[in-house]
Amino acid sequence: MQKVIVIGSPGAGKSTFSRKLRDVTGLPLYYLDRLWHKPDRTTVSKQEFDTKLEGILRKSQWIADGNYNRTLELRFQYCDTVFLFDLPVETCLLGAAARVGKKREDLPWFETELDGGFRQFIIDFPTESLPRIYALVEKYHEQKEIMIFRSREESEVYLNRLGTAYSVSF
Asked: Which of 87, 85, 75 is nearest to 140 (CA)?
């Protein structure tokens, strides 16, 4: 495990998992939200995002946290390991709501509310985004190590086992 993507619905626990995975493995962690969003809540151009992303993907080690469907297949091509969070919508909505008002290292600003459009994205994720993700999982499953978590507990069990192998505990 040297080049890792962590994908799934917002609110599923990807960033928390990614931070813990970084702490266990020592792999550098890159949040795609930080590449895309500026602190003033505007975004960089697609070209600037792609240039930054490709610079990361060329490195020998990384964890890339985030979806960004437009570049998802590119990340599948470069990675050796995929962690997919396929959790119930209700869990993801609660997770997204729970982080409102908390400082986060994965976003360049402080969220003060759960935006209606963002909430709708989470609701639509199983029908709008997951089919494409699963098509890529099917396409690359023989070439990549792929773990699918259907609960946060499954991801915690995985991290605890990995931590034991690395002599790290949470």
From this structure: 75
- Alpha helical stretches, state H, the chain: 14-25, 32-36, 46-57, 72-78, 89-98, 116-128, 130-140, 152-166
Percent of the chain with pLDDT over 90: 84
Sheet-wide strand order for 62-65: 29-31, 62-65, 3-8, 81-85, 145-149
Q: What is the pLDDT of residues 90-102, one digit of tens each?
A: 999 999 999 898 8
CA distance linking residue 170 with residue 164, whole number of Å: 10
Decide: helix, strand or coil at residue 13: coil
The β-bridge relationship of strands 3-8 and 29-31 is: unpaired
d(C-alpha 51, C-alpha 3), whole Å: 18
Spatial CB neighbours of 167, under 8 Å, sequence gap ≥ 6: none
Q: Residue 166 corresponds to which tokens in the numbers above?
A: 């690395």
Q: How many residues does the chain have?
A: 170
Provide the CA 141 distance to its chain's centre, in angstroms. 18
Give the helix/strand (H/E) hosting 85: strand 81-85
